[in-house]
Amino acid sequence: MPIISRFYGILIKMYFREHGVPHFHALYGEYNGVFEIKSLKMIEGDLPNRAQDMVKEWAKMYQDDLLELWENQKFRKLPGLE
User: Does residue 18 carry a pLDDT above 80?
Assistant: First the structure.
């Protein structure tokens, strides 16, 4: 699963050729979360609230890019949260 972004110890990954609702994975230490791209809600996982907030803030800035990555299945890196 390629890393598409990283910031503040959080890794953002996306499986290509995966199906289901468009989503991405966020890993922070031993915690992880799966976020739906369209709603930006965490649909699975145990990511701490502060990390969830940072992931959602980042994903809101790159939501269109995330959807494009999901639809085109072509890997590219996205900037992190600053």
Answer: no
